[in-house]
Amino acid sequence: MAGREPVGIASARPGLAASAAIALAYGAVLPVLPTVVASSPSPARAIAELMAVYSAAMVVTAPIWVLVCRQLPAHLLVRLSLLGQAAAMIMLLWSSETTMLLLARGLQGIFAGAALPALQTAASRAAGSEGDRSQRLSDLTRAALVGGLLGPGVGGARRPTTAWSARSSSALPCSCLQPQRSGRRPGPPPLSWPARVRHAIATSSS
User: Fold this and answer.
1) 41-68: buried (b, 16+ CB within 10 Å) or exposed (e) per residue?
2) What percent of the residues of the chain are helix, what percent strand, and what percent coil, each to the nearest 5?
3) Which intervals of the chain are annotated as region Disordered (predicted)?
4) How many CA atoms does the CB half-sphere of 74 hold within 13 Å?
5) What CA–CA distance (Å, rounded) separates 51 from 98?
6) How far is the CA of 192 from the CAs of 131, 186, 189, 195, 197, in angstroms?
7) Is 72 helix (H, G, I), strand (E, B) or coil?
8) Average pLDDT per run of 10 along the chain, which is 206 residues long?
9) Using an 8 Å Cβ cutoff, are 151 and 27 in contact?
10) Residue 40: is it exposed, middle or buried by C-beta count within 10 angstroms (0-12/13-18/19+)?
11) What are the residue boundaries of the structural domains of the chain, listed by start?
12) What CA–CA distance (Å, rounded) separates 35 from 168?
């Protein structure tokens, strides 16, 4: 297994796409964090904790993922990383409790750290020479930088039109159910369709 090329990411494009997607997922959450922790007593501290737990999770679990990468094919580990991050982002954007937010952010960091050794291993095994290996690793780094650059823009662009959190999505129907408060007194309730027809007939005959 050690000498076999990983199936699915032997070529450069899938690995570059995975590297960019992981960095993009990290950056896309950043503009949303103020909305996610809006109900927290200290939003600034909550954002700092969410940022720190992501990095801490990657640092702590990095040696573990290196050992796992020696036992599992790299393409399986990359898929596990992408699926795990997707689930963690759903938890992060649909939860309002601080404990769940920290857990979701930590899981996102854990699964993000899983892809790094897998992608580097796949690039090293697929390389035909030392120069090719350096080029492939450099391409992975550039793809991650591009994803990290586009991530905040994607998150910021979708934030006004997309219900990123449970609070924002649930607030929309609740606001529609509440009566609009203004200086004018509420008028009579709207007429039903039969009443409107009778009113139109009476008006035209008179």
Assistant:
1) eeeeebbebbeebbeebbeebeeebbeb
2) 75, 0, 25
3) 173-194
4) 25
5) 13
6) 77, 18, 9, 5, 9
7) coil
8) 44 84 90 83 88 93 91 90 91 80 92 91 86 90 92 74 39 36 46 53 54
9) yes
10) middle
11) 13-158
12) 8
The residue behind tokens 């309730």 is: 189
CA 60/CA 103 separation, integer angstroms: 15
CA distances from 170 to 33, 139, 202 (A): 17, 42, 44
Q: What are the residue ranges of helices labelled H in 72-97?
A: 74-93
The Cα–Cα gap between 6 and 22 comes to 19
Distance from C-alpha of 30 to C-alpha of 60, rounded to nearest angstrom: 22
**Enclosing H/E stretch for 73:** none
pLDDT in tens, 102-155: 999 999 999 999 998 899 888 888 888 888 889 999 999 999 999 999 988 888
Give, rounded to a whole angstrom, the gap between the first and last alpha carbons of the chain. 92
- For the entire predicted model, the pTM comes to 0.66
State the residue for tokens 């290996």.
133
Neighbours of 183 (CB within 10 A): 4
DSSP 31: G
The length of the chain, given as a count of residues:
206
- Spatial neighbors of 142 by CB under 8 A, at least 6 apart, are none
Q: Which two tokens stand for residue 92?
A: 């992060």
Residue 8 tokens read as 């699915």
